[in-house]
Amino acid sequence: MTTRKSAFAFTLIELLVSISILGLLIAILLPSLSGARRQTKSTLCQSRLRTFGQGLVLYANDNREALIPGRMPRIDDEQWQVYIEGGLKYRPTFLAMMASEVGLAPFSDPMPTKNDVDVFLQPGDRQNYDNEAYICPSVRFWVDERNGCYGYNYQFLGNARLRNPDVIGSYKNWRVKYSRIQSPAGCVAVADSLGTAASFPKLGRKPYEDNDPGDSESGRTVSARGNEGFNLDPPNVDPENGEMAAMSDLARSAIDERHGGRGNVLWVDGHVSPETLASLGYKVEEDSESDEVGVVRFDGDNRFFTINRKSGPWIQN
Description:
Blueprint: H1 2-7, H2 12-62, E1 81-84, E2 87-90, H3 94-100, E3 150-152, H4 154-157, E4 159-162, E5 171-173, E6 188-192, E7 263-267, E8 272-275
Antiparallel strand pairs: 1-2, 3-6, 4-5, 6-7, 7-8
């Protein structure tokens, strides 16, 4: 009986070999599993962007071909208000207006004025999206409508900021008609946005900051990822006569290569593709000996952002 039992037992060497083989298999499979997970998130992000693309077209159809503005201008603490899916909202961003066209409510309790607070004690101009359809799954905690995960090509497609605060209608660059875009398939509309952290070296970028309802200055660190994320600046910006996400700090935004070294882009015609900073015309400091490694420069190529396929920046006049 002793001999029969020992015939079915593992020796120490056999056990160690088995453990080594399992460890090797795990080491081989883990990168594949991690890659599959990243790809799943990227695919879901692309699906959400396509839905926004439908809203972009529907908005233009409902508004005499006018493309959506990046955000409605501020006149005072009561205006501007827009009806979105779910109710009246104070100064909604392009994302809330765009997705409302396809019936996606961004907020469970939208606020009609700046000083009103919702059930989460968030003020009307800094509410958090509570619909996951508005959030990129790779940065699922970027929920602040100001510091959002998706940015809009506002300079060329819909800059509704006022040139003169006292003159309603003195928009800087709105309304832009869909029919004026020479190549809708080659013009960026919305993309994964890094926010103003793009103006800082990779090692100098700070983590995303949550919006604290009790502190009006919270979530405004210029070097933090996602700051002013709803504004997507093109590759070429003019720091003197143009505009950028944080003009007073000379800090520009850019796409975020958060999906395995690429960022998802929604083009005006509605198709979505993963792109790099370089493929869209951005110039990045790459000198390994420089303290500015990773900084997105001002002098890129704007051909994929302008409505006429020219590279020049948008300027005030």
